[in-house]
Amino acid sequence: MPASSYDNHAGERVARTAKAQTLDADVLIGYANVAGVPFYVHEKSPFQEDLDPTALSSAGKLATAATYLGQALASAHALSDQDYDPAVVGYSIDKQIDAAASSKSGLTSELRQFAFDYAAQVQLDWQGFVAAYQAGTPLY
Predict the structure, then answer these.
(1) pTM: predicted TM-score of the whole model, two decimal places
(2) Residue of 16, 50, 91, 111 with fewest CB within 10 Å of its CB?
(3) What InterPro entries does the database record attribute to this sequence (predicted)?
(4) With contact defined as beta carbons under 8 Å apart, do 100 and 110 qualify?
């Protein structure tokens, strides 16, 4: 989603994305500014449960969970493209993914490279955060 579609408000970006990626989105999803800082707001259902990481006690259980989470992620991306709002995303994300994933090994390679690149960026972000904190730079 281009920054121009949510006026560079991180909370609005998350709220709009959550609505786009969910078939029956929470009607209380929204966003606000508090003291000039953008926030995403929503009500957490008392029936909503978190994933218990201790349940992933074997490679098989982890693989099963990864399969389900991958299917949910693919569904969310397929819902949030031109089918949801062609003014924001004017193309079919699922067709783009199908075209990019010409083979299982190719997809695995792409995902692996993305994960390593993302991990490297997280390390850089963390180093920047620590340096700013140690220098006494205001973080917010």
Answers:
(1) 0.53
(2) 50
(3) DUF2252
(4) yes
Q: Are both 83 and 113 inside the same structural domain?
A: no
The residue with tokens 């850089």 is: 124
Residues 97, 81: contact at Cβ < 8 Å? no
Per-residue pLDDT tens digits for 59-83: 999 999 999 998 988 888 888 877 7
Q: Are strands 30-34 and 37-41 parallel, antiparallel or unpaired?
A: antiparallel
Task: Tell me if 139 is assigned to some domain.
Answer: yes
Asked if 48 and 28 count as a contact pair (C-beta separation under 8 A), the reply is no
On whether the CB atoms of residues 31 and 41 are closer than 8 A, the answer is: yes
Find the angle CA(13)-CA(19)-CA(22) to the nearest 5 degrees.
Answer: 130
Residue 53 falls inside a structural domain: no
- pLDDT band with cut points at 50, 70 and 90 for residue 120: very high
Domain that residue 136 falls in: 103-140
Query: In whole angstroms, what is the distance from residue 89 CA to residue 21 CA?
Result: 13
